[in-house]
Write a structure and sequence with these properties.
Elements: H1 7-24, H2 30-46, H3 48-53, H4 66-100, H5 103-108, H6 111-132
Length: 141
Amino acid sequence: MDLKLTKEQCFTLTKMLYVATFVCDGFAPDQLYEDMAELQKYVLLSTRDYQRDVGIPCSENLPGEQAYDEELCPIIDRFQHDAFWDHLTDEMVNNELRNQFTLKKFSALSLEEKLILRLPLTEKYENEFEENGVQNLVIQR
């Protein structure tokens, strides 16, 4: 397969690979992560000349990842931040629904009914976390 990319497309592709590999590091199964890292290395090595042309410092072997840090780290940080709050909200909603319904009763609800129940709870927790963060979160034993 012969893939023709402009220099800008090549640069964008290397950034996408950097983010994907970073996000999957520690979460993807080992073989998948190794395959992704190998593909990233292959693309980076194959596109060294393009990267030099657009100003990414490259060693003889591999472009330095620090070239991406300034632009991509804030994006990754924002992703991690939003993922945390989305996950916490989802867990709080699930916990509240578990307390309101038996598993049998909840399972009998249609998808539409479940979504109708989830929406106000999701809004409640999103508003709470936006206004107060975890300040009002209490862990009971």
